[in-house]
Amino acid sequence: MRASRKILITTLAVGLSVTVLSPQLASARAPGEQPQPVAATHLAPKSITTSALSRDLRIGVNGPAVTRIQQALLSRGYQIKGMTIRGGPARFGHLNAATMAAIVKYKKDNGLGNAPVVTDAVYQSILKAADPRPNFIVIQTDDMIVDDLMATPEIKKLIGDAGATFTQALTPFALCCPSRAAMMTGCYPHNNRVQSNFPPSGGYVPWEKNNGTSFGAYWMQSAGYHTVHIGKYINGYGMYNRPTVRVPSGWSEWHGSADPSTYQMYGYRLNEPSRVNPFSSTVYGDFYTEEAQNYGTDVYTGKALRVIDQQARQRAPFLIQLAYLAPHVETLPLTDGTWKDSWADVDKPAAGSGIDIASIPPRAALRHQAMDLDGIALPQDPSFNEADRSDKQSFVRNLPALTSDDIEELRLDNIARKRSLFAVTEGVGAIVARLKATGQLDNTYIVFTGDNGYILGQHAITYGKYFPYEPALRIPMMMRGPGIPAHTVIGGITSEMDITPTILELAKVKATRPIDGISLLGVMTKKKALPSRTILLSSGPQQSANGTPLPLFDGVRTAGYAWWVYEDGFEEMYDLSADPYELSSVANDPAYLKTRLALIAEWSRMKDCKGAVCQRPTPDIPDPVSS
Ligand SMILES: [Ca+2]
Ligand SMILES: [Ca+2]
135-531: what fold? Predict the structure, then answer.
C-alpha cells in the first residue's frame, strides 16, 4: 500500500478518469482507519445505477453538490487530472458511468466489498469546505413551563449547560398559534397578523397568507438551506375540511401533523409528501391502542434522526424545526367530541363556531408509565389559589377558589405533563448523540424552547394559558452551538421572537421584512450587552373551556413591571421586584402614578411598532414615590 491517499471522486467524460491526490485528506480520516489507495482506470461504462454510486460515495447525485465538491477540492489545491465536465459546471448532472465503473473495479481489486470508498470523515471535510454554513435544529415543546426543566435535567445539561440559558424568556402572546408565529417570523402578532389560534384573526390560513413567503424557514430555504419541519405546525394545518396534503411554503421536507390529530400521542396523521408520492399521508396507529412504535414523541425523534443521517451526506446545511406535542393535553379523536362547524382552516368561519373536544393529560411513553413520580409536588408559589383577587379584572376575580379536588387534579396533571417529557429528554439526547456520531455536532446550533408557559392554579386560574401572568409568559429557552461559551446564563428579558433573527445572523441570511425581535448572538458570545427590553403583550379571541369568551387585553412587560388594560378598561399593574407573584395590583396606587403613565407611554410606542421601533431599549421608568 502506498502511504499517500488518492481519492477518486467526481465526474468525467466517458473513457477518462479522475484522480485526486489529497495529502490533507489523508489526515482527515477517522481514527484507526487505514489509508486506502484508489487506482484510477480507464473502463468502459458498465450497468450500475447512479443511486448505487450515491450510496457508495455517500453523496447526493444532484448537480450543484458535485460541482461544489469539485470547486472545493480545486480551491484547496487538489489536482484533478483528466477531467472533462460534460456540458459545463452549470449543467453538470451526475457522476457518470465511467467513474462508477472505476470505483467498482477499485473496490473489487482491493477486496473492499460494499465498504465506502470515501469515508464519512473525509466526505465531511469536503462538504464543510463546500458549504461551511452551520446547521440549526429548533426543538419546541408545547405548553412547557420552566419548572418542567427540573424533571428533565438532561435537556438542561445537553443544551443549556453546553451553551446559553435564557432565564427570563417571554412569549408576547401566551397561546400556541400566535406564539409559534412570533417565533417563526421574529415579529409581533400585530405584524404577522396571527393574533389567535383560529381564523379569521389567526390560525393556518391567515398565517400562510400573511407570512408564507416572509418567515425564517422561507428565508433560509431561499438561501440554500434544506429546511425540515416535523410535528405540530400552525393551528388548523391539515384540517379535515381541507384534506389535501399540502406543504406550506418555506419547507424542503415536510412531516407536519394534521389537525386535529396533532393533539394525539397515538393515531395522529402526518402529511409526508415525497418525490415518489406527493400526496403521502400516514396515520400512526390508533388513539386507543398504545403501541410503542407509534408513540408520537419517539416517532418525531426518529424522523429528526433520519434527517440528521441524510444531511450528513448532503452539501446543503439544514434547518430542522422539531415540534413535539408534549406536555400539551391530548384531545380525543373527532368522532368522540363535539365539532361545531368547520372553524379551523377556512378564511371566514361561521359565527359561533368553535371547538369543544374532550381532553386527557398527555400520555407518557409506555416505558415511562411505571416510573414512580408521586414525589413530584405541584409548584405552589404564593400566587397559587390566590385568595384575594379583588385587585384583578372581573373574569379572574370571579373565578371560584380551587377546591381540594381541583388541586389534586392539578397535581396529577403536573405529574402527567412531566412524565410525558421524559421521551422528549431522550429525544434531545439522541439528537445530540447522532449529530456527534455523524460529525455534525461542531457545526450545528440547537435551540430548545417552548411556545407559551402554563398556569397551574396560580391566581385560581385553571385555563393554563392566555392570561399575561408570569407563569404563562415565561418559557424555557436555551441554545448551544459553536462559539457560544458553555454555562452562559442570560437573565435579562429575551423573547422567542429573538430566535429567528439569531439564526439569520449566524447563517448570514437576510430577512425581507422588518424584524421585531433582536439577534442574541452578540449577547451569547459576550460581545454585546443585552439591552433593556419592553415586550408588548397582546391578546385575541379565545374561549374558556365552557365557551365563555376570555377578556381581551393589551399591555407591556418591562424588566421591573407588568401593566395591561382589559377591553372593559380595567387595568392591572404589578411591581415585579416588590411583588414577583403578582398578588397586589398597583394600577390604582397613587405612589405608582408616574410609573403607570410611563408604562402606558411605552405601550403607545409599542402597540403598532415595527422593526427598529420595537427593538428600542426601554426608557427610564420612574420608581414609585415613597409615601
Ligand atoms: Ca402551546
Ligand atoms: Ca390579590
Answer: Alkaline Phosphatase, subunit A (3.40.720)
